Amino acid sequence: MTVAVALAGSTGSIGRQTLEVIDASNGRYRVVSLAAASNEEVLREQIARYRPDVVAVIDSAVRSRLGRDFPSVEFSDDVADVVHPADVVVNAVVGFAGLPVTLETLRQGKRLALANKESLIAAGPIVQPLRNTEGAMIVPVDSEHCALHQCLRSSDHVGREVASLQLTASGGPFRGRTRDDLSRVDVNQALAHPTWSMGPKITVDSSTLMNKGLEVIEAHELFGVGYDRIEVVVHPQSVIHSMVTFTDGATIAQLSMPDMRLPIAYAIAWPDRFDVPFGAVDWASMRTLEFEVPDRETFRCLDLAYAAGRTGGSAPAWLSAANEIAVEAFLAGRISWLQIADVNDATLQRHDGGTLSSVDDVLAADERARQIARGIVQSFAQAAGTVGA
Ligand code: NDP
Ligand code: MG
């Protein structure tokens, strides 16, 4: 039987690799819908090649040009419209913009192959009850959580047998650097990730360890494990993708070379295993796997995420929103790399203690945090003379 796949964020790093996985599947999967923001050239090629039924495009000029050229395709301005024709939905949108896809997939009782961690982090209290919709399920694409998902399959009593989770982190391009070194790093240095090739936002997040911090919250939301039992281990080779330690002392890990096609294939093939290997380890050449503790003083975003996670309510939404603004400002040359953590910290300090009981609450929390973060960016940029940059 052919499985119908929706792919939101098709033009990005995860989106393109999802299509490579589908290409390798010998027709087992069919792409029924695509979504992107504005990358006309790549989207046009994808529509011509995969002939989806539905395409959501945010940019209206791009949407109307593509609509004219592909009259048999149903075009939409709502990214959540990718969900209805699909059996499984890959959410590979970057940032908070992925929220409608996460919510709609679970509401319609479908399987969500989730790369877009920001939606789960910002809207955890709203997403949790939707996971109880009949047929709904989240299978993580994020490599660490996909690894945890695999490790947890070794226990029939996850609730009482898990002692702790170990999330691994490559350490990013600035591992081992001091705060002083990092006061002068530029965008190109932050974008030079040692082991993974990814979109710009998550690559910057990896350089600050905010990605790992967000992943701590993601792990808490996905697996219900308390923050005191989620640990971060720096592992520069990115071969162990994460580990679970059980109450009897056994640690189970998942290993493969850094290749996102493996977790993508896992999430779309679940509960089966994909029949084409991606990133299998060559044990004849594998030599050394190293581990370090993270430098929490230099990479302050990690503990900001633990703090926001422990506060709960809308605090993770505030942190994630502030971070999107801070990363955007860093990429635009308006603030320095060290100031990313400062913007996140200063925004969280103004958190209003709000809770989340509806999607509207999530949207309001996101908007409020962005407003505050923009103000902080503006004051930093004014002080540095980079206001117009
Ligand atoms: P990219 O920046 O490479 O791609 C982002 C995608 O989202 C593009 O297709 C973009 O379209 C689309 N998009 C942006 N805004 C919107 C919007 N408002 N509505 C609809 N689509 C939109 O990101 P990545 O692929 O790197 O990351 C995607 C997600 O996966 C992130 O949440 C990231 O944290 C997560 N992830 C990524 C990993 C990786 O290896 N890349 C690893 C683990 C997790 P357009 O091209 O038109 O702008
Ligand atoms: Mg990850």
TL;DR of this structure?
With 389 residues, this protein is of the alpha/beta class. 45% of the residues lie in helices and 15% in strands. The chain has a domain at 3-140: 3-Layer(aba) Sandwich (Rossmann fold).
Helical content (DSSP H or I, runs of 4+): 40-55%
CATH superfamily caption of the domain at 3-140: NAD(P)-binding Rossmann-like Domain
Q: Find the CATH topology of the domain at 3-140.
A: Rossmann fold
- The number of helical runs is 17
In CATH, the architecture of the domain at 3-140 is: 3-Layer(aba) Sandwich
Q: Outline, from the CA principal axes?
A: globular
General description of the model:
- This protein has a seven-stranded parallel β-sheet with strand order 4-3-2-1-5-6-7, sandwiched between helices. Strands 9-8-10-11 form a four-stranded mixed β-sheet.
- The mean pLDDT is 97.
- Helices cover 45% and strands 15% of the residues.
- Strand 5 (88-91), helix 4 (99-107) and strand 6 (111-114) form a beta-alpha-beta unit.
- It has a domain at 3-140: Rossmann fold.
- The chain has helices spanning 13-23, 40-50, 60-69, 99-107, 117-122, 124-130, 143-152, 158-161, 179-182, 187-190, 200-208, 210-223, 261-269, 301-311, 315-331, 337-349, 359-384, and strands at 3-8, 29-36, 54-57, 74-76, 88-91, 111-114, 137-140, 162-169, 230-234, 240-246, 251-255.
- It is built from 17 helices and eleven strands.
- With 389 residues, it is an alpha/beta fold.
- Bound molecules: NADPH dihydro-nicotinamide-adenine-dinucleotide phosphate (NDP) and magnesium ion.
- Magnesium ion is lined by residues 142-144, 215.
